[in-house]
Design brief:
Helices cover 31% and strands 20% of the residues. The protein has 12 helices and 14 strands. The longest helix is centred in the N-terminal third of the chain and has 14 residues. The chain is globular and about 60 Å long. The N and C termini lie far apart (51 Å). It binds zinc ion (2 copies). Belongs to the TrhO family. Its EC number is 1.14.-.-. One of its GO terms (biological process) is tRNA modification.
Length: 343
C-alpha cells in the first residue's frame, strides 16, 4: 500500500498539464480531539491519493488544517468522504476565488504537534470558548461601529499587500507576537471596546478569540472563514467590499487579488507592487516584494550577494549551503537589511 509520494514536483506538474482537468483549490480546518493522528493521517492519505487530491495537510491531536486542490469532477466523492468523518461532517470548505490548476503539486499529509504553530500553551485556557462568529454582511456592519477595534491577526508580510480599511495591522513576524502587542494596546479597553478580528481563513482567530476572552476581553468577534470566505460572500451576495488589495495565501500563488488596489511597494525600487517572490538563491529564499523590472535586473534575487551565488556552479553552491540550517531560520520571513524599501 502506498503511503507516501513517489513522483517529484516536476513530474506532477507535467502530469497535471497533460491531464488538463479542472481543479478546485480549497481549504478547511477543524479543532477536534484526534486520538491517533498517525492512523488518521494514513487514512486521509490513502483516500485522497486515490481521489487525486493534492495539497498540504496538517494533522495533530488538536485537529486538522488542510489546503488542497481537488479534481472538479471528483468533488462530490471528496465531500462524501469528509462527511463520513464525524467531526468533518459539513465542515465549512473555503473555496478559492481564483482557480489555478497548479496550486499544489503533491499530496503531503503531515502529523504535527499543532495544526497551527501558535506558540500558545493550550492548558492555560479553553480553546472552545471562542468569539462570536460573524459573516461578511454582519462584519461590514460591525466594523462601522466607532466602538470597534478591528485587528488583523496575520503577519506583516501578509497585511502589507492587503487588509481591511481601518484595521490595526501589527508589524509582527509571528502570531504569538501579535497576541501580546494587541493585548498591551487595548489593556484599558477590555470591557468597553468591541474587539473584531480576522485572518486568512479563520483558523488563527479561533485560537486568538478564545485567548482574548481568557484574558478578560468581554466583546470578541471573529470573521468566520476569514478573508477567503468574506471575498466569496461579498461576491455572491453583492455586498460592499471593505477589503483592499490582495489576500496573501500559502500556496505558490502567494496572493489572491480581492481589489485592483496595489497598496504595497517593490522592496527594491519602491514602485507600487504587490507580488511576493522568493529569492532565487536556494540558500537565501527570502520572501519579499519584487516588481518585474527589478526581477529582470536582479535575476529574481534579493541582493547582489545572492546574484553572485546563483552564478556559481551548482556544486559550489551546494558546498556553500552545507552546514547552514534551514534558510527560513537565517532570515526572519520577509525582512532583510538589503531591502531598501521594506519598512
Ligand atoms: Zn522594483
Ligand atoms: Zn537572497
Amino acid at each position: 500500500m502506498q503511503l507516501y509520494n513517489k513522483l517529484s514536483a516536476k513530474e506532477r506538474e507535467t502530469l497535471l498539464e497533460q491531464a488538463g482537468e479542472e481543479r478546485l483549490t480549497l481549504s478547511f480546518y477543524q479543532y477536534a480531539k484526534i486520538g491517533n493522528p498517525h492512523l488518521f493521517r494514513n487514512h486521509l492519505f490513502i483516500a485522497w491519493h486515490e481521489q487525486d487530491v493534492l495539497g498540504r495537510i496538517y494533522v495533530a491531536h488538536e485537529g486538522i488544517n488542510a489546503q488542497l486542490s481537488v479534481p472538479a469532477k471528483r468533488f462530490k466523492e471528496f465531500k462524501e468522504f469528509l462527511d463520513g468523518i464525524y467531526f468533518l461532517k459539513n465542515v465549512r470548505l473555503n473555496i478559492a476565488i481564483e482557480q489555478d490548476l497548479k496550486s499544489f503539486l503533491k499530496l503531503k499529509v503531515k502529523v504535527r504537534d499543532k495544526i497551527v504553530a501558535d506558540g500558545l500553551n493550550d492548558e492555560t485556557f479553553d480553546v472552545t470558548n471562542k468569539g462570536i462568529h460573524v459573516d461578511a454582511s454582519k462584519f461590514n456592519e460591525l466594523i462601522e461601529d466607532p466602538n470597534v477595534v478591528l485587528v488583523d491577526m496575520r503577519n506583516h508580510y501578509e497585511s502589507e499587500i492587503g487588509h481591511f480599511k481601518n484595521a490595526v495591522t501589527p508589524d509582527v513576524d509571528t502570531f504569538r507576537d501579535s497576541l501580546d502587542i494587541i493585548e498591551e494596546d487595548l489593556k484599558d479597553h477590555k470591557e468597553d471596546k468591541k474587539l473584531v478580528m480576522y485572518c486568512t481563513g479563520g483558523i488563527r482567530c479561533e485560537k486568538a478569540s478564545a485567548y482574548y476572552k481568557h484574558k478578560g476581553f468581554k466583546n470578541v468577534f471573529q470573521l468566520e472563514g476569514g478573508i477567503i470566505e468574506y471575498a466569496r460572500q461579498v461576491e455572491n451576495q453583492g455586498l460592499e467590499n471593505k477589503f483592499i488589495g490582495k489576500n496573501f495565501v500559502f500556496d505558490h500563488r502567494r496572493g489572491e487579488r480581492i481589489t485592483e488596489d496595489v497598496i504595497s511597494h517593490c522592496h527594491q525600487c519602491g514602485e507600487p507592487c504587490d507580488t511576493h517572490t522568493n529569492c532565487a538563491n536556494e540558500a537565501c529564499h527570502l520572501l519579499f516584494i519584487q516588481c518585474p523590472k527589478c526581477e529582470a535586473a536582479m535575476e529574481n534575487c534579493c541582493s547582489e550577494e545572492c546574484i553572485e551565488i546563483i552564478h556559481l556552479p551548482e556544486e559550489e553552491q551546494k558546498r556553500l549551503r552545507q552546514g547552514i540550517p534551514n534558510s527560513n531560520k537565517i532570515f526572519k520571513k520577509g525582512r532583510s537589511e538589503k531591502l531598501k524599501f521594506k519598512k
